[in-house]
Amino acid sequence: MVEPSELKRRIQAWADELGFTDARVTDTDLSAYEAGFERWLADGHAGTMGFFERHGLMRFHPEELVPGTRRVLMVTRDYLPPESLGPSRVLGDPSLGYVSRYALGRDYHKLVRKRLAQLAKRISDTVGPFTYRAFCDSAPVYETGLAERAGIGWKGKHSLVLNRSGGSWFFLGALFLDIDLPVDEPVEPHCGSCTACLDVCPTGAIVADGVVDARRCISYLTIESAEGIPEELRPLMGNRIYGCDDCQLVCPWNRFARQTNDVDFHARQGLDAPDLVDLFSWDEATFLSRTEGSAIRRIGWRRWRRNLAVALGNLPTGHDRIPAAIAALRAGKGEAGEQVDRHIQWALARLGASG
User: Do 145 and 290 share a domain, yes or no?
Assistant: First the structure.
């Protein structure tokens, strides 16, 4: 029989072989996070994401989600892709669309869970059958708290997990285990007095240290929300069409971030620096084809069109792409439903054109 400390050492070595950057162990006690979550819900910060309330406090009780869970193995996987045109250049060119860097490659949910299942197979080959379940942003699991408890890093003021040697450009994965393993110790937070992420947020969505009001967050507005984007927030979104990375781009700890060597997370379909007018010309079939295997696909073509209309409406006065944008917006009216048409009409008015 393998001693728990030796088994943990082997698991960490296997995780490294499978491409995980870090692998650490925690218990299931997340009780310290419950009160903050309930305040966040009570303040309405979840927006229309009703699943948070439906799942209640389940995310803080791994042993209830998967009965028998005794330990959680938390892993990280770097995703920042090497690119021909970096994020700041894309954000600085209003004719291009900015896609959050995590979504440029293949859908991370399936890829991380698949590797975790492979890791579980190696464990079972050593200890015999055991109960496990792999997660990656795919169930009511409070991955941030588990990562903190495991010593992966600390929750930054932007609410993402930060690591002193890797910044925040990584995915988190969780493997629930019914095996006893030695736990790792949490690390101290190292944000100090820095407020760079709060200061840079385009819509002021970071309302307190570690607290994000989803209703103002561009990631929520462009991905999670199926409603119309509030008009007062549209000009603040610039050319961000799927998610937002501003808080990560200014974080001093991300000077230590590593680019991924995983080709699955490299940019696909030219979405690291796409032309907005070209993207708006995609019909639904093209959208489904070009986003196959991508996390972007789940928002659907209509929400994609809505986001693009807002970005086109934010082209600055006198920009040479305005005539093409106006033509594309006019041609797109009536194709994707009334909600999208309202955003198109707003964009046309912003560009000084009639419908």
Answer: no
